[in-house]
Every structure is written in structure tokens, then in C-alpha cells.
Write a structure and sequence with these properties.
The complex is a heterotrimer of chains A (290), B (336) and C (252). Chain A has 290 residues and is an all-alpha fold. Chain A is built from 13 helices and 2 strands; from the N terminus they run H-H-H-H-E-E-H-H-H-H-H-H-H-H-H. The chains are: A mainly alpha (290), B mainly alpha (336), C alpha/beta (252).
Chain lengths: 290, 336, 252
Amino acid sequence: MSSIIEFANLLLGGLAAGMVLFIVSVGLSVTMGLMGFVNLAHGGFAMIGGYIIVLTMTQLGLPFVVALIVGFVVTAAISIVLERLLYSRLYRAPELDQVLFTIGLVFVMIATVTLLVGPESLPLTLPSWMQGQVNLGFMRYRTYSIVLIVAGVIIMLGLWLGFERTRMGAQIRAAVDNRRMAESLGININRLFTLVFAFGSGMAALGGGLGAEFLGLDPQYPLKYLVYFLIAVAVGGLGRITGVFYASLIIGVLDFALKLYIPKGGTLFIYALTILLLLWRPQGLFGKST
Amino acid sequence: MSATSDFSSHPAARALINRHRLRWWEPLPWLLALAFYFIFPRYLGFGTEVLITVLFAISLDLALGYAGIVTLGHAAFFGAGAYTVGMLADNGIWTEPVTGLLISAAVAAAIGFLSGLVLLRTTGLTLLMLTLCTMGLLEEAANLGHDWTGGFDGLPSLNVPPLFGLFEFNPLFPKTQYLYVLGVLLVCFVFVRTLVYSPFGQSLTGIRENTLRMHAVGAPVRWRLILCYTLSAALAGVAGGIWAQANAYVNLTTLGLDRAATVLIILVLGGYGRLYGSWVGAVAYMALAHFLSQIYPTAWQLGLGLLLVAIALFARGGILGIGDALLARFARKKPS
Amino acid sequence: MTEVLLEARNVNKNFGALSATRDVTFQLEQGARHALIGPNGAGKTTFINLLTGVLIPTAGQVLFKGSDITNFEQAERVKLGIARTFQINQLFRGLSVLENVYMAIAERAGAAPGMFGPAGSRRDVIDESMELLTQLKLADIAHKTIPELPYGRQRLVELAITLGLKPQVLLLDEPAAGVPSAESHIILDAIDALPKRIGVLIIDHDMDLVFRFAKKITVLVRGAVFAEGTPKEIGANPDVRAVYLGQATHGA
């Protein structure tokens, strides 16, 4: 009986972590699939968003959900400015230039946050309705984790509907599949990309705030978790939101399971597994095969 | 099929035939490095670090600048070389310096070859991510295997016997280290220079310039890239091995993202895809870092970030690229 | 009896629901002067990509001198003797004209893997490259880099690279496309001067070029073979004319 509880603990904890990873990484997946732009600064938007959310709560006294909205909007706005002024100059640039630019940008982001707020990690106090435990019937579990899972599923469904049912979603999917053909059909790729970039950065902010309680929020966040975002995106298949969803959940659950059973070798195992997986399927689990 | 005439007087042919000839200024960096030995005896430790970094940056240039493989995980090979020397010395298996470097090169080359087989099937973000994973894998392995690798603390105070039985490695007065590193750098540099000017090096340029066209002229692109990556890994392994010997310790900093990102920044700062970019980048970066990063670390990071953004947008060729542009402008202004 | 060099048998290529190539059977003999024409979007470049290994067929076979090469990679097919030019120039833009051709000849001659002598010491490759450039009247600009050349000359360098491979089969994808009419004769002259024993397939929209060059024409419409025959037969075919009605011709 207790092993079921143990298993459920693991599953729920892993799913919650995976949801956060998904929410942060989905923007990176779509921008990567749409424009082929290697944005290593994506974690920086998650960090900035997280900081805005926490500061909105602590300095302005606004409730958590309102702070999340503020974080989303402000981060999206910042990303639009950066995209129009800087990112857009490098769309046709070689990959190395994109890597250099985004590394430089993330350094600037980290340094700025350190200078403005300080190098220590910023604690987040969850609203009271998210604290404590909820009765699931056969066990009690952390409310916070349940909220994350529910939020993740709602966001996933929302995104999926947006992609499958709206005209803009269809345009995005077409452009991800074949950019040149989409352009010849009259789709304004640049405008599409700005919107997708802003939305993705806003999503990252949301993820940064939602996950701050267990991932922490400090200036090193973007570099600490960079590999995880990249793994989620590559394993899921670039530009596939269902792909990054499942990949994130798998990574989350795997990470939890490994921390439990192989407390020291977990990260190593994830690296090795990623390499083997991409050896077998270079396009990721859900990417289109060449 | 032999040609019927001799075209060696044609300007295009002449340019190609003379491309590899030594230019007058090429001995300068070496002479300066030698002069440094005599002029700044108290900075030899710093000088040794710089020379090792030059070697590491050159190894990255082979993969990145000439073959176009964008990697953030090159420290994997540096660390592999360093830990090879470290583990062999620490367990009393092998301590002789020069052969130790050869073993480091071989180990790093093996890792480079095996990882290249996997990684070079992919491109772009996936390739970049896999280089990070490979490096992360090695870093975690070093962290966990503390029985062999010393774990988080690394392997302090390695026993490095005198070079050729004659020249002692004195940590307080690193004279032997400096000249030893300079000698190894010279040998490796000659190797890379020869490679770059060879037909093989030319084909790497072709792969970087137009991969599709290289396939369409019958080049076995993937195998060329794997070979290039393996050689690049071997050289990085030598750099790591010599780092362990010169410092007489090994730790996890030889394997992390910090070291890998720094060498990439150094290479781009100096100018990638050119033999001397590594020199310029290493000297410039490490001189600045030496003074600034300790005192004002956050400002240093901010400045570095802004510099990288500026380079990516305006000065892709780094310092040497800016130098070229200035020379071109100067040449235009000169009366003919 | 002329040998069949390159052959496609019932080749199909689907991209998801889209049938780009439908059941195409095709033969190219030694010495052939064959043209592939058809309206825009007919799948001509796709077909060349299937013949050269850029794409792998969904069904059907590609054969070279009777051997199955359907799953061979591009580079393997080049080694057999199949070379192609691209619709948009695929050159080494930072390098000189000589270096561009050197790259191809070095691969063919087996000089490319050499790691220890300088590239310039392979005089045989240099001399062969310069001879080829002289034949194509490119020798005087051999030292210039690609961006310095007018587009017509760039297109000629594209052709020079493939000739350096000494192919048995040459596939030219719109060789005169984008070339200003004042310069197009250099391409046409070069095509006229191609060695007689090479089997040549040209895709083009310029009917003057096609009728001047081809001894056999295949018409591709919506991925399938619509008609095939001598220029006279195709020119007289009312269905072909109907398919082209309203289609403007490119080129000169």
C-alpha cells in the first residue's frame, strides 16, 4: 500500500516539476522551430519574469495571480523591445553569432538583476490557498504541486486549441513546417515571430514565477537550468508543443525518480539518456524525420 | 590526366601556391612570448595560463572556426586531458610529463571520436545541446567518482617529476612550466598550421562555406567533420593535460560551462577561423579579466555581456577583424 | 547501342499528403541531350533531387548503369559519376574561382584528404583546374572571389565545378536562370561545348534554349510524365501547348 503512495508521490512531484519545465520551455521550442533562432537567453526571461512576479507581490502587495499576469505582460513587453531592436538583426546570421549574442544578453540580464536586486536568491511566499495539502482520496498531497499540474494541463490545452483551431495557429504550424512555402503563401513571418517571441517569453516568465518555490530564483537561474530547457526542446522536437510537453513531463518524473533511487547519479543519467535518445532519433521524439 | 601547360605564373595559381608561406610577422608572437620570459619573471604563472589558453582556443578554432561546428562543450576534452594526467599521477601509474601529454591527447581524441559519431549527425540547437550534455556527463562522472577523481575537491598536489629528468616544475617560480608550455604550444601550432593549409583544411573551409555543395562534389562530409572534431579534441586534451602538469592539481573547473564558454568568448574576441585570433583573444581577455573580474565581478559580467552583443552585431571578426577593416581603409587612403 | 546511364523506375515522392513525383519512369543514355520541361510546380527540381540523392523516393528505384542506387547518398552518387548544378548557385562565395574548382577536382583526384602538404603543392590539381577554367574562358578572372563576378560568370563557375568532377551524367537545373540576356550566351556556348559522351539533362523554361539543345524532351506536369518525344513531336503536340497556354517563358 505504501509503495503506491510512494509511487504517487513520485509521479505527482515529477509531473509538477515537468509542468514548470514545460511552461518555461514551450516558448523556446516554438521560436526555435519557427525561426531557427538559437536563443540561449530564454532562461533569462524566465528569471526576469520570476523577479518581477516576486517583487510585485512583496513591494506592491499584489496577490499571486495578479502578479503572474503582471510578470507575463511586462516580460513580454521587454522581449518585444529586445526582439525589434536586437534579435531581428540576427535572423539570417550564422548560428555562432546567435549563440554569442544570446550568451552576451544573458550575461547582461544576470548582471543587471544582480546589480538591481542583489546576488542572493529571492524567496517566494506562496499565497495561503496554495499552501498546505489537498485530500486526493487515497492520499493527501501538496496543494502547490496539484495547482502546478492543473495549471500546466490548462495551459497545454489552451495552447493546443490555439495552434489547432485558430488561423494564427495554423499559420505558425505552416511556417514551422516549411518557412519558405509559408512566406510564398503571404504569411508575414516577421510579425508572426514577434508575437510568438513575446508570448513565449511571457510564458517563460510565468514558469519562472510558478516554479520559483522549488527551482529557486537567483541571478544564476538562466545558466543553471539552461541545459534542461535545451534538452526538453530538443528531445520533444523543435516547434512541437505536444513534444515539449511530453518531454518535459518525462524529464520531470525521471529527475524525481532518480533523485529518490540514485541520489547522486541522477543528472548523469539524464545526460546519458538524452545522448542515447538523440542518437536513435536525432529529430527528437516528436519531431518530423528528415 | 596531366596538364599540358604550367600555370604557376598565373596570379590565381600563385596565390594558392604561396598561401602557406611564412609571413614576416608570424615569428613575432613567439619572440614576444620568449621576451616575456625574461622581462616579467614574476608574472610567469599568469603567462603560463595565457599560453595554455591559447592552445585551448586554437583547438576550438579548428572545430569552430574552420569546420563550423558550434560547440559549448569543448571543456569536456580539456578536462578529460587534465584528469587523465591527474589520475595517472595520483595513482602512481604514470607521471612522465611529455608522454603523459600524449596519453591525454589519445584519451581526449577517443572521447572526441565517439561523441563526434553521435553529435555530428545533428546540427544547430540539437548539436549545441548535445555538446553541453557530453561535457555535463563527464563533469558529473568526475564529481561522482571521487575514489579516482577526487570528486568535488579534485586531485590536489600532483607529483610532476622534472622535465627530461633535469628541469624542475617549481610552483613558486614557474620557469620550467612556462618554457615547457611554450614548446608544446609551438609543436601543436605547427601541426594546426600545416593542417589548415593542407587540402584537408581547404575541404573543411568548403564544408563551412557551403555544406550542400561539398556533398555535391562528392566529399564525405560527416567523416571529415568527425576527423576534424577528433583532432580538435586531442589538442584540447593536450591543453588540459599540460594545465594539470603546470598547476600540479586537477579539479572540476576544468570541465564546466564556465571554462567552455570562456574559451569560446576568447576565440571570438580575437577572431575565429584565423590562426592568430587565439593569441590576440587570450592575451586581451585574460589581461582584462586579471585586473577587472576580481575587483568588480558584476560590472565585469555586464561589460562582457555588452561586448559580446556588440561583437555579434557589429564585429563578427573580433579584434583581428577590426584590424583588417582598419588596414583596408588605410590602404585605400594611401596615395597610389 | 548507347548505354543507359541513369534511370528512374516508377519513382514516387510524397511529402505527407502532397504527391510531388508520381510514378515517373525515365532514362538517360550516354551522349544524351535531354530536356525536362513543365509548368511551375511540376516537380522538376524534386525529380533532380531524387536522381542525385538529395531526396529519397517514397517508392520506386533509381539506377545507375543497371545498379540500384536508390538509397545512395549524394556524395556516393557523385563518386559514381553523377553531377548537378543547382537552380540557385551553390558556390564557395568567400573563395576565388580557382579555389572553387580546385575543391571539386581535389575531391575527384583523391587529393582532398591530404593533411600534411600544403594545398598549393598539388600542382596537378592546380594545373587541371586552370586548364578547365581556360576552356571555359574564366582564366582571366580565376583569382577573383565570387561576389566580384557578374552573375552570368558566377553561373559559369557553377558549371565549371561540375565539369571538374568529370561526370558521366550531368544534370543542369535551369542553367541560364537569372542570367541577364546580354550574358546568357556564355552559358549556352558552354553547354554546346560539353563533351559528347556525357549524358546531359537540362531543366529549363526557356523554350529557345530547350529546342536548340535537346534531342529528346520530357514534359512533367503535376509530378507525372505528361509527354515525351523529340522536339518536333513535342512542339507539334496540342496537349503540351494547352498545358503551357498562359505560361510565360523565362530567360532571354
